[in-house]
Write a structure and sequence with these properties.
By secondary structure, the protein is α+β, with helices and mostly antiparallel strands. The chain has helices at 42-50, 92-102, 110-120, 136-148, 166-182, 194-200, 218-223, 228-233; strands spanning 2-13, 16-27, 31-35, 57-62, 65-66, 77-80, 154-158, 187-191, 203-208, 211-216, 238-249, 252-257, 262-266, 275-280, 286-289, 301-314, 317-323, 329-334, 348-354, 358-360. The chain has eight helices and 20 strands. The radius of gyration is 25 Å and the shape is elongated. The structure holds adenosine-5'-triphosphate. GO terms for molecular function: ATP binding.
Length: 361
């Protein structure tokens, strides 16, 4: 059963189309991340669902009912918006209770519900404080408690963690995920941060220019991006621009870059164009030391000779930049290297990656 359905929703501001024929369904208990660059229409989509903005065409249905005529407070929606701060003159408890009073929850039930919400967001005991007496992270947790207090059919979170510093952001992200799962909240979370989108969402919807360009599981979005935009926007990548040489062998085409690099890529028949952009994820590149490669290069693998330019040990991962003399640079990421010896700048290496790990657009 779909808790929310958007049917062909369009919103224009003058000549400008902010949301362009967006259709979307979300099932009960699922978390959907809406990801895209600034200005792609994420917030407008959320505002349309919440009822703050009316679409020009299309329909919004919540649990099968068209809510087009309902005011925001009449829609059973919980909100945590960027510009929807806590009320500074109200205590934490009053803030959390706010939506319940509005929605006509019996007065006698409110204190116990506030208590329940405070313990859910791990702030029990802070009910009497004012927002100014809380840290940024605590304020966001109160805002989340306020959004969830009415047990809404759908929870809309717009950049819920963006105001926090990096460490707190990560901590609260994990907590947010747990809380949403524990109350089985059907949620749309808007973010321009790809890591946040991939880690929070059961599914990710990528938007560009008001349109949905791809919807899929976090793994699909990363491993099978629908186009160059998604591949560039989600995750890190190395790019080559190549022209096809000869015909394909076993589904693998060879492309030559303007710098003269030959790259083999497994490309579906439908996409064997003459000029393509090629993408290799840094995690798929294996580096081997030594000036000569013992691995025979066949059409299914790529072996590029280079020299280590820079090594950045980033915790468990190691980022290695390789200079391909006269032919550009490559970033390789070695995961979970732990205490294994790394590479050093100036060291000759060979970068190996399979043709099936090369995406062609
Ligand atoms: N009330 C308005 N009047 C005119 N243009 C608007 C209005 N609201 C939004 N827009 C435009 O619509 C586009 C989409 O805006 P929206 O806020 O939905 O983007 P977003 O993807 O949420 O971006 P961000 O990540 O920066 O918040 C933007 O180009 C914005 O300038």
């Amino acid at each position: 059963m779909n808790v929310l359905e958007l049917k062909d929703v369009t919103k224009r501001y003058g000549e400008f189309t902010a949301v362009d024929a967006v259709s979307l369904k979300i099932e009960k208990g699922k978390v959907l991340s809406l990801l895209g660059p600034s200005g792609c229409g994420k917030t407008t989509t959320l505002r349309i669902i919440a009822g703050f903005t009316s679409p020009d065409t299309g329909a919004v249905e919540i649990s099968g009912a068209n809510v087009g005529r309902l005011k925001p407070y009449e829609r059973n929606v919980g909100l945590l918006f960027q510009d929807y701060a806590l009320f500074p003159h109200m205590t934490v408890a009053q803030n959390v209770a706010y939506g319940m009073r509005y929605r006509g929850t019996p007065k006698s039930e409110i204190p116990s519900r506030v208590k329940q919400m405070m313990s859910l967001v791990q702030l029990a005991g802070m009910e009497a404080r004012y927002p100014s007496q809380l840290s940024g992270g605590q304020q966001q947790r109160v805002a989340l408690a306020r959004a969830l207090a009415t047990d809404p059919q759908i929870v809309l979170l717009d950049e819920p963690l963006s105001a926090l510093d990096a460490k707190l952001r990560l901590e609260l992200r994990i907590e947010l995920k747990e809380i949403l799962r524990s109350v089985n909240a059907t949620t749309i979370v808007v973010t321009h941060d790809q890591e946040e989108a991939l880690s929070l969402g059961d599914e990710v919807v990528v938007m560009r220019g008001g349109k949905i360009v791809q919807r899929g599981s976090p793994t699909q979005i990363y491993a099978e991006p629908a186009d160059k935009f998604v591949a560039e926007f989600v995750g890190r990548s190395n790019w080559f621009h190549g022209s096809r040489r000869g015909s394909s062998s076993e589904g693998v085409c060879t492309y030559v870059t303007s710098e003269g690099l030959a790259i083999h890529a497994r490309t579906p028949l439908s996409n064997q164009r003459d000029v393509v952009d090629l993408c290799v994820r840094p995690e798929n590149i294996v580096l081997m030391g030594g000036a000569t490669s013992d691995v025979a290069q066949d059409v299914k693998s790529n072996v590029l000779a280079g020299v280590v330019l820079d090594v950045a040990p980033l915790g468990a991962d190691m980022h290695v930049v390789v200079e391909l003399p006269g032919k550009g640079r490559l970033l390789a990421i070695r995961k979970n290297v732990g205490s294994t010896p790394g590479f050093i700048a100036g060291q000759p290496v060979h970068a190996h990656f399979s043709a099936s790990d090369v995406l062609a657009f």
